[in-house]
Design goal:
By secondary structure, this protein is an alpha/beta fold. It contains eight helices and six strands; from the N terminus they run βααααβαβαβαββα.
Length: 224
């Protein structure tokens, strides 16, 4: 039997996959920088999407030569972000259904996010998939290195008790795809944060999570 027929764990990125949170964290970070007297653009953050808030904020600060206390800056960014979540954060159509479908066929399901746990918990509560509904949740605090390093995904596989070769990752970011492939995992990309042309290293690219099927995750369909 081919290994793609044995896939039995789905590892979901969170931001940009399950919830439309990328615009919110960008708005919060821009507001934080404005408090420091610096006007930054949304596109300044693009190279750091999926790499965790340390790099997301720190990378832009470096670009503009702004000296920041990163711990304080990140805490303020999260403070602004969490105020937006209750009224503004939206779940992507099909996200809840795909997670439910995976669990229904006996797959182990995990979250592996470069975000800090405070953000992960707030997002998952808002979209109706709280921490306790997952077999494993891995966040930035659980590893020393963030995406594109594979540590997050390898930690998730270890906690799930599933070999990496039998895991499929659902990602939206270039850094996340690189991490999944470095971990030796199948990867399905959704074009919610980047254009499809930038996601070609994934095994398959879908416009949104609503289009992702169990067959995509399993790799049965030869279509890319």
């Amino acid at each position: 039997m081919q290994k793609t027929q044995l896939m039995r764990a789905a590892i979901f990125d969170m931001d940009g996959v399950l919830a439309d949170s990328e615009p919110l964290i960008c708005a919060a970070a821009r507001a934080m920088f404005l408090e420091h007297g610096l006007v930054v653009r949304a596109e300044d953050f693009e190279p750091f999407v999926g790499a965790g808030e340390n790099r997301y904020i720190g990378g832009v600060a470096e670009k503009y030569g702004l000296a920041l206390d990163l711990i304080v800056a990140k805490a303020r960014t999260y403070e602004l972000y969490l105020k937006m979540v209750p009224a503004t954060l939206k779940v992507f159509p099909g996200a809840f259904e795909l997670v439910t479908a995976c669990r229904a066929v006996g797959w182990r399901c995990a979250i592996a996010s470069s975000a800090d746990r405070i953000k992960v918990e707030a997002n998952l509560r808002k979209i109706g998939l709280p921490i306790e509904t997952w077999h494993a949740v891995v966040t930035a605090e659980d590893v020393e290195r963030r995406k594109p390093d594979p540590a997050l995904f390898l930690k998730a596989a270890d906690r799930l008790g599933v070999p990496p070769a039998f895991c499929t990752v659902i990602e939206d970011a270039v850094n996340g795809i690189a991490a999944a492939k470095a971990a030796g995992m199948r990867c399905i990309a959704v074009a919610t944060s980047f254009p499809r042309a930038k996601l070609t290293q994934a095994d398959r690219v879908r416009t949104s999570i609503q289009e992702v099927t169990l067959a995509d995750l399993q790799g049965f369909d030869p279509e890319r």
